[in-house]
Specification:
The chain is of the alpha+beta class and 340 residues long. It has a domain of 121 residues: CO dehydrogenase flavoprotein, C-terminal domain (Enolase-like, domain 1, 2-Layer Sandwich). Helices cover 27% and strands 20% of the residues.
Length: 340
């Protein structure tokens, strides 16, 4: 590993200042992704900036939502009672990340900003688009864990963050600080589809910027469901997973303004993970759910609709069925119907 400097800032301001150097500086959370990339010679920063000292709290916001600090550990998110009460899909996703050791070490910002797991990207021998090369080895290579949506290229990664998916589904905003001050970015716009111009990155963060908070709005009258499918249940990234957030027309047992029952879905957010270069919002599934009663039959329709536009690669057709099932079962969980 190349020698590097280590900086331990006490404040956001110091952390941002420490990222500005003549060379490459990178923030360090729990280090599980960054240090692995350094050991594999994928990244060789001149300086790493420890950001575990930034905000590690979960606080209520005036509008009834929550503000989650970037340094909150995944285990603490998974065990937080306020998060569980308002955003159960976040707790479900956090509780299934990797293993207890990974959840104990990993931070919210590190999880959101982790780099792709594509095995060509992780092997220094393969200089693909994401490392400044001029081809994607997955196209004619081993692509069984790659994208089934958004496959226009040039890269066919799936976004690796489990937390990003419920954050997008709940309409979170990400607070970012940099040399020019702070800004808030909707989670859905933080992650970027690959183009030849931006393929070296997966999000809108500039090199000298930091993600400091995830701000979740008050959920309102919603039902929530989350479902993940893994190859190895003990530890692994999911093969496909889904968060659904259903805005209901009225509270259970009551009648909505237009005469709809409390079991009618007014509108829905359906977001899939591990299927596309970004957390993938499925408009066809959302349309299939809107105006319908929340039932197993509606869940099946949403699953079908969710994969209607899938474009799998040569080795990952099997993921289409898994994605369909994940959406169906996430909706069933929102309905309180038992799933396996
Ligand atoms: C066997 C295994 C199974 C796993 N399964 C899953 C899974 O199911 N789901 C899942 O989501 N993940 C999974 N992971 C990945 C793991 O959860 C992530 O590596 C971890 O969450 C990263 O968090 P960290 O704090 O250690 O990140 P770090 O390694 O410290 O940072 C990751 C990246 O984020 C950047 N970064 C860190 N903090 C900030 C900040 N504040 N602002 C901007 N950039 C920042 C770093 O520079 C780095 O590029 C798995 C890992 C392993 C080894
Ligand atoms: S999918 Fe992306 S990261 Fe993987 S080889 Fe292709 S360009 Fe590289």
């Amino acid at each position: 590993m190349k020698a590097f400097a280590y900086v331990n800032p006490a404040t956001e301001k110091e952390a941002v200042a420490a990222l500005k150097i003549d060379g490459i500086a990178m923030p360090l959370g729990g280090g599980q992704d960054l240090l692995a990339r350094m050991k594999d010679y994928i990244d060789s920063p001149d300086r790493i900036v420890n950001v575990k000292g930034l905000d590690a709290t979960v606080t209520a916001t005036p509008d009834g939502g929550l503000k989650i600090g970037s340094a909150v550990k995944i285990v603490d998110l998974a065990e937080n009672a306020q998060v569980a009460a308002l955003y159960p899909a976040v707790v479900a996703a956090a509780g299934e990340v990797g293993t207890p050791q990974i959840r104990n070490q990993g931070t919210v910002a590190g999880n959101i900003n982790q780099r792709p797991r594509c095995w060509y990207f992780r092997n220094e021998e393969f200089v693909c688009y994401k490392k400044g090369g001029s081809r994607c080895f997955a196209v004619n290579g081993e692509n069984q864990y790659h994208a089934i949506f958004g496959n226009d290229g040039p890269s066919h990664i799936v976004h690796p963050s489990s937390l990003a998916v419920p954050f997008v589904a709940y309409g979170a905003r990400f607070r970012v600080v940099g040399p020019n001050g702070e800004r808030e970015v909707p989670a859905a716009e933080y992650f970027t589809m690959p183009t030849l111009q931006n393929v070296l990155k997966e999000n809108v963060l500039d090199d000298e910027e930091l993600l400091t908070h995830v701000i979740l709005p008050a959920p309102g009258n919603v039902k929530h469901g989350h479902y993940e499918v893994r190859y190895k249940q003990s530890h692994d990234w999911p093969l496909a997973f889904a968060t659904v957030v259903l805005m209901m027309s009225a509270a259970n047992g009551t009648t909505g303004a237009n005469g709809t029952s409390g079991n009618t879905i007014r509108s829905a957010r359906v977001v899939l993970g591990a299927v596309a270069p970004v957390p993938w919002r499925s408009r066809p599934a959302e349309e299939a759910l809107a105006g319908k009663p929340l039932s197993e039959a509606t869940a099946a329709l949403a699953g079908e609709a969710a994969v209607s536009e899938a474009k799998p690669m040569s080795g990952n057709v099997y993921k289409v069925q898994i994605a369909k099932t994940a959406v169906k079962r996430a909706v069933m969980r929102a309905a309180g119907i038992k799933t396996v």
